[in-house]
Design brief:
Layout (H helix, E strand, L loop, with lengths): L2 H4 L7 E2 L4 E2 L3 E3 L11 H13 L4 E8 L16 H16 L4 E6 L11 E2 L13 E2 L2 H20 L4 E6 L4 H6 L14 H19 L4 E9 L8 H14 L3 E6 L19 H10 L4 E3 L6 H9 L5 E4 L1 H5 L3 H6 L17 H5 L28 E5 L3 H12 L3 E6 L8 H4 L8 H14 L3 E4 L13 E4 L3 E3 L12 E3 H6 L7 E5 L3 H10 L12 H8 L24 E5 L14 H10 L3 E3 L2 E7 L2 E6 L2 E5 L3 E4 L3 E3 L4 H6 L4 E3 L11 H14 L1
Parallel strand pairs: 3-4, 3-12, 4-5, 5-8, 6-7, 8-9, 9-10, 10-11, 11-12, 13-14, 13-16, 14-15, 16-27, 18-25, 19-20, 19-25, 20-21
Antiparallel strand pairs: 1-2, 17-26, 22-23, 23-24
Helix pairs in contact: 2-3, 3-4, 4-6, 6-7, 13-21, 17-19
The chain binds flavin-adenine dinucleotide, NADP nicotinamide-adenine-dinucleotide phosphate (NAP) and iron/sulfur cluster.
NADP nicotinamide-adenine-dinucleotide phosphate binds next to α17.
Length: 675
């Protein structure tokens, strides 16, 4: 069966009358940080995705006015000079056969600069400055700026614009009483609250003429108190159509919403059912978004009539050839976005350049290049965890003869442990990808044998990616039978009692708590949309204001009582900047006891003896599980050195502190690119 037949709905062109899109795939907007770095690098980044077959690319948010930027100095479209700079991007995309729209953004109160403007002077709970309420003069000037910025975008060669109307930005603020308490013609009734965003659409259409794509990113569920009702959303969608919008794209949840909307614990296509209700109400194409990462998921959404198109942002970081691979029926070769946020959104919120955990070339298209070698070498790599798999794939792709050893009978290293944590099922995809790629590039696999230095004598180069060993602690009673390590629990499946204390609340401690608080006989929320909606209190009937007001969360109780402990006094969260709070919320829902500032005294039949401040206590638990960090495993290094063999260390074998798969994969790829 050809790719064209298999994904016939997804790969079908879309006729907008004055222009055609080659398929139904939108690359959704992402602020990568390249916007503030270089037009040339942005051009390379977008052109690579155009080569990969995306139907319509949307840029990161470009401010319509200096006040509307995300931070001081944010990239904006204010002048003809800006337009000229942007033409570097549009030319590159058009030469690569693609189409591109600029996302026009006014952040309103969701910004990191003190000049921000909003409908009312109400500060967002997650941004540092209070906004100034817009005067009538501000309203008029900013309306002009919307039209001007989009006109300049057209002049720069963009095929269209996406008007950013969701995620709690300015236009979304105008629509809700949460952001808009005005009593003039721009506030009060919903009719009045719609006036500003609709006027923006009219100004943009007037400034750009009929033959220019206008996508409107519509907040279909605000997921905050005092958000829009769904009836209001539908009314507004119909008015957007009348005002001349060509495509409605889905937005779900404000940034300040306390519900995960795109992280890996959100089920795939979790909100497509909401998009469907909007699609049923209008006659223009509507695009679904959020946690769509594989062609089969995207195809199903369109085939069952939930949407006309799909918008995917992070999956295009993970694999620029996503569409091409779907066309060629090579879904198995897709490097799947695992929705971890670790190298993309986490970086954005730390004002660092984005990339991708599974694809370190993302946003480094001009820097990290895999060139065929003219000096092929025989290379041994020990350890088939993320670092080793990444190195082996890139080195073999470049033409080296690579042998990959692992003591385990399967590839993956710690990812085989991570993939069983509820909410980390996407890790299976990374293992599938590497399995396919190692075979495709002819890597010789030697599994199920612990290697020693002598096995490696004949190779030109030796790379150690042997990972880590759990940190050894010095607590009295550590040899007590009730003590287990995370490997005993997660890898070796030792029986765990009903009351448990976890020592260490880093990434693995938090994941172990997640694992132990889920009933293995129930599908986790990450794999079941109705369970996800129940656990996070989202109304499947779409009757609750904002999608949440008055809805009770319903969470499966934990099968055991869990204490999660750390010595530091800071709040326990997961490790990710943008996902840590979700882990914390999830553990609290399961009634995990989060204890900080703990000193460990001893472990005995009575349980775990601890102190917090000057208070001593005994946690009367059946098991104490140690998740207290890791040390590098360099057991082979000495033997190889005594044979006079130089070795390269990558991943945990190199440095275990703050090790994660992002660093392991990146380090493997970079070493392989230069060897
Ligand atoms: P490893 O994955 O440890 O692989 C080392 C490999 O070397 C192993 O397969 C081992 O068998 C092999 N080996 C060692 N010695 C020999 C020898 N002598 N001969 C042959 N083979 C040998 N990271 C993230 O970024 N995000 C997450 O969400 C995340 N979640 C996690 C959840 C859990 C429960 C765990 C345990 C880890 C998680 N991690 C996560 C961490 C991530 O898995 C590690 O950072 C990553 O696996 C390190 O990669 P590595 O290649 O350096 O080593
Ligand atoms: P970690 O994140 O370094 O956490 C170790 C924990 O052990 C901390 O809570 C630490 O807190 C405690 N600890 C350290 N030394 C101790 C000691 N001597 N005695 C008692 N407690 C001690 O390590 P990890 O949880 O083992 O994870 C390993 C790596 O995998 C990490 O780098 C992590 O980021 C990564 N990972 C990432 C994710 C993810 O979702 N991104 C998930 C899992 C793992 P105190 O010192 O305050 O007690
Ligand atoms: Fe997806 Fe993670 Fe890559 Fe971001 S870093 S694009 S979430 S795989």
């Amino acid at each position: 069966m050809s790719g064209q037949q298999k994904y016939s709905h997804l790969l079908q062109p879309l006729d907008l009358g004055f222009t055609q899109l080659r398929n139904r795939v939108i690359m959704g907007s992402m602020h990568t940080g390249l916007e503030e770095v270089s037009m040339e690098r942005q051009a390379a980044f977008f052109a690579r995705r155009a080569e990969g077959g995306v139907g319509l690319i949307i840029t990161g948010g470009i401010a319509t006015s200096p006040e509307g930027g995300l931070a001081p100095g944010s990239s904006g479209m204010f002048s003809e000079k800006d337009a000229e700079h942007h033409s570097i991007i549009t030319r590159a995309v058009h030469e690569a056969g693609g189409k591109i729209a600029m996302q026009a953004l006014h952040a309103g109160r969701q910004s990191f600069h003190p000049l921000m403007l909003a409908p009312s002077a109400k500060q967002s709970p997650i941004y540092p400055f209070p906004p100034k309420a817009m005067t009538e003069e501000d309203v008029e000037r900013e309306l002009y700026n919307w039209g001007n910025a989009c006109h300049l975008a057209q002049q720069a060669g963009y095929d269209g614009v996406e008007i950013m109307g969701s995620e709690g930005y300015l236009l979304n603020q105008f629509l809700t009483t949460r952001g808009n308490e005005r009593d003039d013609e721009w506030g009060g009734s919903y009719e009045n609250r719609m006036r500003y965003p609709l006027e923006v659409v009219r100004r943009v259409r007037a400034a750009t003429g009929p033959n220019f794509i206008i996508v409107y990113r519509l907040s279909m569920m605000d997921l905050v108190p005092d958000g829009q009702s769904f009836d209001e959303v539908i009314t507004f969608a119909k008015r957007l159509e009348q005002a001349g919008v060509n495509i409605i794209n889905t937005g779900i949840g404000w940034h300040e919403a306390k519900i995960p909307t795109i992280a890996t614990m959100v089920p795939r296509a979790a909100f497509a059912w909401v998009t469907r209700k909007v699609k049923e109400a209008v006659n223009i194409p509507v695009s679904a978004s959020n946690r769509i990462n594989m062609p089969s998921v995207a195809e199903d959404i369109i085939a069952r009539g939930d949407a006309d198109m799909v918008s995917m942002a992070r999956p295009m970081l993970a694999d620029p050839d996503w569409v091409k691979k779907a066309e060629a029926d090579l879904e198995q070769e897709i490097n799947t976005c695992i929705a971890c946020n670790q190298a993309c959104l986490d970086h954005t919120f730390q004002l660092r350049l984005s990339s991708c955990l599974v694809n370190p070339q993302a946003c480094y298209e001009t820097e990290l290049v895999y060139v065929k070698t003219d000096k092929p070498k025989s290379i041994a790599i020990v350890g088939a965890g993320p670092a080793g798999m990444s190195f082996a794939t890139v080195a073999a792709q470049r033409g080296h003869a690579v042998t990959l050893f692992d003591a385990d009978t399967k590839i993956g290293g710690q990812f085989n442990i991570a993939k069983q944590i509820p909410g980390k099922e996407e890790f299976h995809e990374t293992l599938r990808y590497y399995d396919v790629m190692l075979k495709k590039h002819g890597v010789k696999l030697s599994l199920g044998k612990r290697v020693d230095a002598h096995d490696l004598a004949a190779f030109d180069e030796v790379v150690l990616a042997t990972g880590i060993v759990p940190r050894h602690l010095d607590i009295e009673g550590l040899d007590h039978p009730k003590v287990l390590s995370y490997l005993d629990v997660l890898r070796d499946k030792k029986v765990v009692g009903k009351k448990v204390a976890i020592v260490g609340a880093g990434g693995i401690g938090v994941d172990t708590a997640e694992y132990l608080t889920h009933d293995p006989h129930h599908k986790p929320a990450s794999l079941d949309i109705p369970t996800f909606l129940k656990e996070w209190g989202i109304d499947p009937e779409l009757k609750a204001r904002g999608g949440i007001e008055g809805v009770q969360e319903q969470v499966d109780p934990s099968p055991r009582e869990v204490y999660l402990l750390q010595r530091k006094t800071k709040k326990i969260t997961g490790p990710g900047k943008t996902t840590g709070w979700i882990h914390r919320e999830a553990l609290l829902k399961k009634k995990v006891n989060l204890m900080t500032g703990v000193s460990y005294r001893k472990i005995d039949d009575a349980g775990l003896h601890i102190s917090i401040g000057d208070k001593n206590m005994v946690l009367n638990v059946d098991n104490v599980i140690i998740c207290a960090g890791q040390e590098p495993n360099r057991e082979l290094q000495e033997g190889l050195a005594s044979m006079g063999k130089h070795v390269h260390l990558i991943g945990g074998a190199d440095f275990a502190a703050e090790l994660d798969a992002k660093r392991a994969i990146d380090q493997g790829a970079r070493l392989a690119a230069g060897i």
